[in-house]
Amino acid sequence: MTVSSPLPAARMSGRGLIETLEIDTRMLAMIGALAAIWVVFDVITGGLFLTPRNLWNLAVQTSSVAAMATGMVLVIVARHIDLSVGSLLGLTGMVMAVLQSRFFGIDGDLGWVLSVLAGFVLAGAIGGIQGWWIAYRGVPAFIVTLAGLLIYRGLAWWMTSGQTVAPLNPNFELIGGGLDGSLGAFWSWALGVAAILALCARAVFARRRRHAYGFPVRPLWAEAAVLAAQIVPVVAFVMVMNAYPQPRTNVPMGIPVPVLIVIAVMLVMTFVATRTRFGRYVFAIGGNPEAAELSGINVRRITVWIFVVMGLLVAVGAAIATARLKAGLNATGELDELRVIAAAVIGGTSLAGGVGTIFGAVLGALTMQSLQSGMVLLGLPSPMQNVVIGLVLVLAVWLDQSYRRRRL
């Protein structure tokens, strides 16, 4: 019988402490960079950045890109790229808006539910078609999705001759947040408590599994420290969301609905990427496509499904963005393909394939939106905002390459 033992005592240096706590240094660096961005912007904006109102809006504004970035992780991990997500978001959102406003009507719930389902079917089918061209016809993903970028934007304009489509169903608009699109204080705390209990249960379960299989376990103090590092952000997040009151009633807003959707998407995609055969196959293909093919993985079929998943997540982003704008606009999703790719790369997804995390992509999306929000508060013109974001993207790729070279 194998007896489990605690991890060997490490010297209480910075490196020893990180090893004892089993902290992902790359993720720690990303969190540190995000914190630094927040502090710097708060200082230079005179305390405007870290107000509950701005952080609440920041969370809502991040949601659409964050949902799509979780799918872009799988695309890039498999050594592909998708330049069409912004245009596909615009087309899908326009379809949802047209179906509600001109066909199903804005009264009742059936119309908007059917419009959202139609958007999911459309985006998933388009993703599958793109994946088929890439996997079975050998057309590079760059070319297929670049064509999609042009085609879908044009189709969205053609549907309405460039007109804005409104109004939309009020219940559909809740998906985008707004004054009524949030959980309120009670349900936000209920969700926060549930998340804390889930984190505690996961920690206990993981420790018991390590004991059962004879693997080394962290000291109890380290286990408690890691758990506290997970619980504190949950409590802080709920407190901040509840600290922003509704302008009309002065009642706490609570967690916005789009943020709740992104949390659900992040959990599902993390499970798919780390706990399913499909996820393991995606990372195997990204690590070595030839070896994956020889090992019996149907690389072509997996490639098609990667783009189907990407399309479905674009539909999630389209529902959030269209509901938040309360209209179908031809400009919806412009340059979102670059924001989504940048979020995945900044979040640690390697353009060389085989490496990436869902949480990192969401963190990357939050970093991107934080930069944009801070620059808006400073009154920086849009062209200069693009310059800064471009420089950050180049820096992120350079850091990724440097990190990979050090590990080789």
CATH architecture of the largest domain: Orthogonal Bundle
CATH topology of the largest domain: ABC transporter involved in vitamin B12 uptake, BtuC
Q: Count the beta strands.
A: 0
Order of helices and strands: HHHHHHHHHHHHHHHH
Beta-strand fraction estimate: under 5%
Helix content: over 70%
State the low-pLDDT regions, or none: 1-11
Helical segment count = 16
Structural descriptors:
408 residues; mainly alpha; ABC transporter involved in vitamin B12 uptake, BtuC; 2 domains; 16 helices; globular; disordered N terminus
What does this structure look like?
There is one protein chain. The chain is mainly alpha-helical and 408 residues long. It has 2 domains: 24-34 and 60-179 and 256-407, Orthogonal Bundle (ABC transporter involved in vitamin B12 uptake, BtuC), CATH 1.10.3470; 182-255, no CATH class. Helix content is 73%, strand content 0%. Helix 14 (336-346) packs across helix 15 (358-377). The chain is globular, with a radius of gyration of 22 Å.
Secondary structure elements and their pairing?
Elements lengths: L13 H8 L3 H20 L7 H26 L7 H20 L5 H27 L4 H20 L9 H4 L10 H30 L6 H24 L13 H19 L1 H11 L1 H6 L4 H27 L10 H11 L11 H20 L4 H26 L1
Helix pairs in contact: 2-15, 3-9, 3-10, 3-13, 3-14, 3-15, 4-5, 4-6, 4-13, 5-6, 5-13, 8-9, 10-11, 11-13, 14-15, 15-16
Summarize the structure.
With 408 residues, the protein is an all-alpha fold.
